[in-house]
Write a structure and sequence with these properties.
The complex is a heterodimer of chains A (112) and B (113). Chain A is mainly β. Chain A contains no helices and eleven strands. The N and C termini of chain A lie far apart (41 Å). The relative contact order of chain B is 0.34. The chains are: A mainly beta (112), B mainly beta (113).
Amino acid sequence: GENVEQHPSTLSVQEGDSAVIKCTYSDSASNYFPWYKQELGKGPQLIIDIRSNVGEKKDQRIAVTLNKTAKHFSLHITETQPEDSAVYFCAASKPSARQLTFGSGTQLTVLP
Amino acid sequence: EADIYQTPRYLVIGTGKKITLECSQTMGHDKMYWYQQDPGMELHLIHYSYGVNSTEKGDLSSESTVSRIRTEHFPLTLESARPSHTSQYLCASRPTGTGNTIYFGEGSWLTVV
């Protein structure tokens, strides 16, 4: 089955700096890659996703890049703010899969 | 914005009690899931359903049980709660079709004393 590895497990950045979280996946048939943000005491919320037919997608300060050859994808957050502090999860899914395979999560802390 | 609701949000119960965590979604999604998560840690799939009268166990073994009698409702039951069941339980749903994301509820925090 699919295996998703996520790094780093914890990340601290100064406010205004950029943050990058990376994930690798094992199944080359995977074609859908969402990212979730989970704030303390809440459920994960989708923040951005990318499909295998594109290499990059941006939404304001958030971007995701996908390298299908290397089987890895990354989340980029620019101009970080304290409210970006949360746990971020990546996930992967292939067309026939009935569920997403999640990474182990990254605790991002933005220091004021 | 996803319309998926979990109750109760917080629950403290004694060992040996029976509890049911409720989950409802109003989006008509056929797929529903239960995940168990310790604070800030990995998401562990414990149950899922592909539709009415369909339930399967997930990757993580759990003593809980689920039922899916109606499309919109996917309750999780613990017949006899133990302190090791203390955790956050997240319900989620996903629409039909491939390449679709799943939507999570706010979670139910269970503490067994």
